[in-house]
Amino acid sequence: MAGETLDLGHLYDDVDVDDMGGGHLYDGSDVEPRVTDDLLHRDLIVVQPMELYDTPYGSGTVPTGETSYAYCSFEPRINKNSTFSKNWAQDTTPQSYGGLREDSLAIVLAPEWHGDIHTMFWHGDDCYEVDGPPMHMAHSSKDAEHWNITARCIGHAGPAVVTPPTPPEGSRIWGT
């Protein structure tokens, strides 16, 4: 050891991690993922993709694909307007009356979003449809980066109506 310098910055360079029992602390352990306690992880919604369909009588959307859970911040808004929707998009909610109507809008802030303008989600017993394109808000810090989604209420669950879908057991939760 005389004349040799001990390099403390690379202690295990010549050691095989398999000889030490593996390279990660929780290899082989079933560890529950931890969700941070911040604004973007306050609510859990059920997300359902939709697709367009056309008929001789018009077009619309139908739920399709697998549902997923997503962590987000759900903020309801009330808006009275006389347009089809807040951003002039096509209204897919059937109505038998005209004139002013009250839109039940919501703003969703999510750390991860895989939906598009053809996406619906459930918050409790209320069903919402994405209204306009989701906006990726790539702010300066990693913690503040999120998706901003505007949605409007298109229905409510009930025993005689429809129940919210349940994502498959073991499916990945967006935002974890």
* Integer average pLDDT: 79
Strand neighbour order, sheet with most strands: 1-3-4-8-6-5
Helix content class = under 10%
What is the number of helical segments per DSSP (H or I, 4+ residues)? 0
Would you mind describing this structure in some detail?
The chain has 176 residues and is an all-beta fold. Helix content is 0%, strand content 38%. The protein contains no helices and eight strands. The protein has a six-stranded antiparallel beta barrel.
Secondary-structure blueprint:
Layout: E1 43-55, E2 58-63, E3 68-81, E4 101-110, E5 119-123, E6 126-130, E7 135-137, E8 146-156
Antiparallel strand pairs: 1-2, 1-3, 1-5, 3-4, 4-8, 5-6, 6-8, 7-8
Characteristic key phrases:
0% helix, six-stranded antiparallel beta barrel, 176 residues, mainly beta
What would you say about this model in short?
It contains no helices and eight strands. It has 176 residues and is mainly β. It has a six-stranded antiparallel barrel.
